[in-house]
Amino acid sequence: MRGIKEFLKEENGIGVVEIILIIVVLIGLIAIFKGKMSTLIGDIFTKIGKEWKTL
């Protein structure tokens, strides 16, 4: 229990600001590449469907 309290009091970890910045960057990347990702995923599932039919 003592280790958990010390861990929670520790200030050397990632702060809230850093976590928010990481989330903002990830959301931005998703927004930028959304069209390309959906096309890529659609193509992959189409290929899987074609291969599944040939089995």
Query: How much strand?
Result: under 5%
**Oligomeric state of shown chains:** single chain
Shape annotation: elongated
* SSE-based structural type: mainly alpha
| Rounded mean pLDDT score | 84
Helix content: over 70%
How many beta strands in the DSSP annotation? 0
Order of helices and strands: HH
- Structural domain count: 1
Distance between the termini: 56 Å
Strand count, sense and barrel status of the largest sheet are: none
The number of helical runs is 2
What's the alpha carbon Rg, rounded to whole Å?
A: 21 Å
Q: Identify low-pLDDT runs.
A: none
Describe this structure in words.
This protein has 55 residues and is mainly alpha-helical. It has one domain. It has two helices and no strands. The longest helix is centred in the middle third of the chain and has 39 residues, at 16-54. The chain is elongated and about 60 Å long.
Topology of helices and strands:
Layout: H1 2-9, H2 16-54
Summary keywords:
mainly alpha; 55 residues
Write a short abstract of this structure.
Helices cover 85% and strands 0% of the residues. By secondary structure, it is mainly α. The radius of gyration is 21 Å and the shape is elongated.
